[in-house]
Amino acid sequence: MTTIDTPSPTPAQTPPVRGPVTSASYSITVRLSADGDPASIGRIATAVGSAGGAVTAIDVVESRSDGLTVDVTCSAADAAHSEEVVAALDAVDNVHVRKVSDRTFLLHLGGKIEVSSKVPLKTRDDLSMAYTPGVARVCLALADHPEDVRRLTIKGNTVAVVTDGSAVLGLGDIGPGASLPVMEGKAALFKRFADIDAWPICLDTQDVDEIVRTVELIAPGFGGINLEDIAAPRCFEIEARLRDKLDIPVFHDDQHGTAIVALAALRNALRVVDKELAEVRVVVAGGGAAGTAIVTLLLEAGARHVLVWDREGILSPDDDRLSPAKLDLARRTNPACVRGELPDALVGADVFIGVSAGNVLPVEALQHMAERSIVFPMANPTPEVDPIRARAHCAVVASGRSDLPNQINNVLAFPGVFRGLLDARATEIRPGMLLAAADALAAVVRDDQLNANYIIPSVFDAAATEAVAKAVEQTARQIPGATVDLDEDGLPV
Questions:
Q1: Where is the composition biased (Pro residues) (predicted)?
Q2: What is the distance in angstroms between the CA of the first residue and the CA of the last residue of the chain?
Q3: Residue of higher predicted confidence among 12 and 489
Q4: Which one of 15, 227, 287, 492 is least enclosed by Cβ atoms within 10 Å?
Q5: Residues 159, 177: one domain?
Q6: How do residues 174-216 score in pLDDT, each as one tens digit?
Q7: Given phi > 0 = left and psi -120 to 50 = alpha, else beta, which region is 408?
Q8: Which of these ranges, 7-16, 180-189, 292-301, has the smallest mean pLDDT?
Q9: Secondary-structure breakdown of the chain: helix, strand, coil percentages, each rounded to the nearest 5
């Protein structure tokens, strides 16, 4: 799921609209007692449907001569909708709600990741080699040859997922403890999609110096650093300083992962509408971490006409209200000092990319875009404009939602990026690697597959991670000084 920076609400925003599609993320299991009437199960299913829920399973837990105990599993559109479904069930004649279990919370009980041993520890010999006294020989060898640490320890396949909990999944500043489930999930995705061992590092500070120093101190145990959910503009300085200090890659997924997938999706969307990146007019909503990275990568890829909108309006270099980061963004995108609000920027535009806040754009504004327009409202959990209604006005629509076609999801990028970086023994990450990742991801969608509803591969398409990893590894090896030098046997020199 794409992480974004959320500006303060503006008067143009409207109350969130419940999505038309139910989701497993709001899935519940309701234990019910019902009478022995054979029609009870039918009335239960009908009640869920009448409340707008979707029944996924009805299991009989206990059967008695006078009735049944059943577990009804169903999905809803949001938390309030789940309560409406439960109320509808409780209103069924001769049915009593005994217990409601939220399946998402149940999945998180005890956490989502664990540490397991890669070697057997069953005998005295196993212990003597994996631990004392045998391990001492390996430690002494590494003291003499520190370049072998990546080869003889977990460092070569381990990433630290570092956050201060200040900009979590569009939820904002919820702190390090509350952010831990997200970081656990990120670590699980690393393992699932790229077989990388990642670990959450949730820091109880938002002080730039403390964060930089802490990461610097733990870096010897990791092959890469994934910065996650750190608010702008603090994240820019943290990333820059760590890249300068460390000899391992530092990657801010909220910025660069989002940018890679957005560019890949845009490349294919432009193929659908037969337009060129250098010629189209692009509007980006959101001048925070994700928006800045997207604009930077678009410009690197050859885009020439970009405007950025945020809470101050269209970012203009003559606006003295802008922060240094936004002023730099304005100078790189708006030399003509165009002013106005988001609908103004969209007049005649070919592409809209949103990484800002939910419902900041009225759907009617899309009809003023150029013909065969492309719209990517990616704010999470509520997009800038309803993607379903947007389809009436645009040729191609993509969003961060998993329940609609064309999901722009960072999991398409970061596992492959780090797989490639680790395999190349990269010491840093360069813009060329990001462009290579985006191009490789776009190319996963073959010409015979490409259409307006399929511009980006599924997150479960193994070819996506493999293609991105290969492109990043090859590009890293071609850049002088970007990787550890190896001898002809593949060993560090």
A1: 8-18
A2: 40
A3: 489
A4: 15
A5: yes
A6: 999 999 999 999 999 999 999 999 999 999 999 999 999 999 9
A7: beta
A8: 7-16
A9: 40, 20, 40
Whether the pLDDT of residue 171 is over 60: the answer is yes
On the question of pLDDT at 491 being above 90, the answer is no
Name the nearest CA neighbour of 52 among 93, 26, 21, 30: 21
* Averaged pLDDT, 325-348: 95
Q: What is the mean pLDDT of the chain?
A: 91
Would you say residue 338 lies in a domain?
Answer: yes
pLDDT of residue 401: 85
Q: Tell me which residue range forms the domain holding 434.
A: 256-492
Residue 469 CB burial class (10 angstroms; 0-12, 13-18, ≥19): buried
**How many domains does the structure of the chain reveal?**
3
User: Bigger pLDDT: 390 or 14?
Assistant: 390
CA 186/CA 200 separation, integer angstroms: 8
Question: Has residue 396 got a pLDDT over 70?
Answer: yes
- Report CA 204 to chain centroid distance, whole Å: 22
Name the burial class of residue 188, with classes exposed (0-12), middle (13-18) and buried (19+) by CB atoms within 10 angstroms of its CB. middle
Integer CA distances (angstroms), 450 to 220, 388, 404, 406, in order: 44, 20, 16, 11
Catalytic residues: 131, 186
Whether residue 487 is predicted with pLDDT greater than 80 in this model: the reply is no
> In angstroms, what is the C-alpha Rg of the chain?
25
Q: What is the residue-wise DSSP string for 145-195?
A: -GGGHHHHSGGGGEEEEEE-SSS-TTS---HHHHHHHHHHHHHHHHHHHH-
Q: Is the dihedral of CA 456, 458, 460, 462 positive or negative?
A: negative
33 vs 95: CA distance, rounded Å? 6
Mean pLDDT of 35-55: 90
**CATH number of 216's domain:** 3.40.50.10380
**Structure-derived torsion over alpha carbons of residues 371, 377, 383, 387, reported in degrees to the nearest 10:** 40
Q: Look-up: residue for tokens 């560019």?
A: 263
The CATH number covering residue 283 comes to 3.40.50.720
Q: In this structure, are residues 416 and 464 in contact, taking their beta carbons and an 8 Å threshold? A: yes
Nearest-10 Cα torsion for 434, 439, 444, 446 = 170
The answer, yes or no, to whether the previous bond of 20 is cis (omega within 30 of 0) is no
pLDDT at 162 over 80: yes
Reduced to 3 states (helix: H, G, I; strand: E, B; else coil), residue 99 is strand
